[in-house]
């Protein structure tokens, strides 16, 4: 698959920007506007702080493939950077699976405190170093909740027997099964038609799925159970870090952190706008179920987590941050 993708990239595109000392090739799949803005902000900061010695060339909107293909291109050093879901990263480093655990974070503030902790995150970012890539920062990809076509989810019983689209993440699949529903893993591009045709009763995602993906045209009930907050992860090739000077590598890492701070601001404003749009333009109704019974239903997942020491250690660190907040 990788070779097929590579043939679509012209030699000119790959060496564009060679007048600069370094040109980083940064590719991504489909993303919400605030995240695209933050990735571009990263490039602006890098160029400014290095005096133009390092620039960033973008390959947006799946030009070079989907998220898995982009990770493989980073591993190979064919491109320098990408941004992918932490859910996907579980298949490259199992420790990332902890972020797919349901009801892990108490709030958005708790999420940010954890993700900004070098003690928690640096070992996770470095877990893929032996595979030719490491994480340099994260972006908030929102809180994932259930939304449905025919009726709202206000209790665990409302999920019983319903078919929900989930990401291709073993942890996400298990969560939906524990809640009594039937998980169907499929690409995001197939969800709208599947909801429309009754193949799915619902899906789970943040508010952007309702508006940007226009799922709100067929799914009118959004229930804030807020079961997961799975971060997006920005990856860089270890070959790229080896190629960069120490000064330039430090500038890239610092720019990534600054881009995350910028993203926090634009994301918060954008999500509020999407909620309003979902209600006013799509007629979506919002519900806030009591999540305590949802948490109880998935408790066996946490009991089993004790058998996976690496994940359980991160889980304990995450809970400690909550208790100390």
Strand content: 15-25%
Task: Please tell me what the overall shape is.
Answer: globular
Could you tell me the number of beta strands? 11
The Cα radius of gyration reads: 20 Å
Strand order of the largest sheet: 7-6-8-5-9-11
For the largest beta-sheet, the strand count, sense and barrel status come to: 6 strands, mixed
SSE run = HHEHEHEHHHEEEHEHEHEEHHEHHH
What do the pLDDT scores average to? 92
SS element count, helices: 15
Low-confidence stretches: 1-20
**Helical residue percent band:** 40-55%
- Could you tell me how far the N terminus lies from the C terminus, measured between alpha carbons in angstroms? 45 Å
Structural classification = alpha/beta
Description:
This protein is about 45% helix and about 20% strand. It is built from 15 helices and eleven strands. The strands form two sheets. The protein has a six-stranded mixed beta sheet. Strand 1, helix 3 and strand 2 form a beta-alpha-beta unit. Helix 3 runs antiparallel to helix 12. The longest helix has about 35 residues. It starts with a helix and ends with a helix. The N terminus is likely disordered.
């Amino acid at each position: 698959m990788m070779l097929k993708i590579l043939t679509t990239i012209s030699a000119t595109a790959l060496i564009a920007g060679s007048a600069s000392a370094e040109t980083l090739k940064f590719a991504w799949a489909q993303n919400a506007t605030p995240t695209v803005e933050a990735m571009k902000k990263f490039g602006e900061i890098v160029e400014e702080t290095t005096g133009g010695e390092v620039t960033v060339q973008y390959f947006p909107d799946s030009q070079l493939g989907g998220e898995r293909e982009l990770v493989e291109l980073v591993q190979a050093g064919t491109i320098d950077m990408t941004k992918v879901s932490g859910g996907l990263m579980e298949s490259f480093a199992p420790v990332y699976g902890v972020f797919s655990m349901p009801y892990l974070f108490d709030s958005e503030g708790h999420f940010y405190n954890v993700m900004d902790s070098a003690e928690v995150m640096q070992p996770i970012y470095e877990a893929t170093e032996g595979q030719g890539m490491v994480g340099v920062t994260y972006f908030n990809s929102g809180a994932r909740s259930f939304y449905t076509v025919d009726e709202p989810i206000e209790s665990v019983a409302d999920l019983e027997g319903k078919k929900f689209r989930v990401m291709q993440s073993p942890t996400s699949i298990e969560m939906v099964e524990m809640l009594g529903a039937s998980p169907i893993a499929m690409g995001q591009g197939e969800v709208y038609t599947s909801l429309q045709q009754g193949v799915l009763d619902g899906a789970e995602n943040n508010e952007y799925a309702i508006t940007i993906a226009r799922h709100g045209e067929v799914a009118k009930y959004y229930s804030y159970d807020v079961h997961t907050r799975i971060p997006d992860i920005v990856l860089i090739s270890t070959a790229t870090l080896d190629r960069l000077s120490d000064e330039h590598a430090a500038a890239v890492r610092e720019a990534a952190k600054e881009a995350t701070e910028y993203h926090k601001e634009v994301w918060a404003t954008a999500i509020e706008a999407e909620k309003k749009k979902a209600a006013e333009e799509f007629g979506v109704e919002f519900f806030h179920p009591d999540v305590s019974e949802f948490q109880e239903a998935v408790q066996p997942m946490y009991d089993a987590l004790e058998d996976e020491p690496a994940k359980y250690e991160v889980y304990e660190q995450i809970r400690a941050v909550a208790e100390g907040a």
